[in-house]
Amino acid sequence: MVRPIYRFAPSPNGRLHLGHAYSALLNEQGARESGGRLLLRLENIDVLRCTAEFCQQAIEDLQWLGINFEPRIRFQNRHTADYLKALQRLREMGLIYGCACSRSERLKEASSAAQDPDGQPLYEGTCRNKNLSGPNLAYRLDVEKALKLATGSLEFFEGGIKHEINPTIWGDVILGRRDIGVSYHIAVIVDDSLQGVTHVVRGADLKQTTAIHRLLQNLLGLQVPQYEHHDLIKDQTGRKLAKSKSDMSLAEMRDQGATAKDIRHMLGFDA
After folding, report:
1. Cα 235 vs. chain centroid, distance in angstroms?
2. What is the pLDDT of residues 5-51, one digit of tens each?
3. How far apart are CA 44 and CA 41, in angstroms?
4. How many CB atoms lie under 10 A from the CB of residue 15?
5. Dihedrals φ, ψ of 124, to 5°?
6. Which of 205, 92, 218 is nearest to 147 (CA)?
7. pLDDT tens figures, 111-120
8. CA–CA–CA angle 233, 239, 244 (5° rounding)
9. How many whole angstroms separate alpha carbon 37 and alpha carbon 46?
């Protein structure tokens, strides 16, 4: 019998808050109740925003909460070669193309363009047939072409319920970024496969991205974990907590006298 493997994988671009604590504790609970393993991965491929200081602070916050991860932490910025190898495989399949469109140019079209699930302008494939190449380009996945090459079933199961996927809602997503080399989409599915992750427990705000992840897993022949997308922790106005909004961090709560037991109780983890 395969021992379940859970992972908590925050992006350390700021101090962790209650939402991170909730997700980490859910993963801890899942691993404990299943007799599984619990891994910590710091998704810091964006080295422009995910500093070494934030990485260390995230580790300290999780240690303070008393979560017992396995000792070996995976730092994404140390494994770029793994992600570039996967990107190259997709390129050799003829599924990747260079894109010269800047973010500012796309935002100008935002009022008239369709939007992806994150509310960003849906990329219409402007550069799809231009055969562009070079170091200053982003590299996109030709989603329609990829769907034609995909084999078998692309759905995923959550709570015993089958979910059909539709990657076209994201347009031709960027997999190779001009600033940091690769994007979250390709790094996360490569990491989950290399680490043998069997259970992905993450926020509901990432549920729609599973469509892209399942497509990439299919194309690259990677294992498919079980998924669970949990409710988000929100403030009194119903807005999800975010580092970018300067919501109170775990460190600030600790400085005001909160204990790890207080945080666990507040989030419904009393055991």
Report:
1. 22
2. 999 999 999 999 999 999 999 999 999 999 999 999 999 999 989 99
3. 9
4. 18
5. -95, 0
6. 218
7. 556 899 998 8
8. 90
9. 27
Rounded to the nearest 10 degrees, what angle do helices 210-220 and 184-194 cross at?
60
- Rounded Cα–Cα distance for residues 131 and 75 (Å): 34
Contact 241, 235 (CB under 8 A): yes
Tokens of 115: 């939007």
Q: Are 47 and 75 in contact (CB under 8 A)?
A: no
| Structure tokens, 53 | 């200081």
Tokens of 5: 């493997």
Provide the residue type at 36 as one letter. G
Angle at CA of residue 228, ends 224 and 232, nearest 5°: 140
CA distances from 161 to 6, 23, 39, 212, 259 (A): 20, 21, 26, 19, 38
Q: What pTM does this model have?
A: 0.92
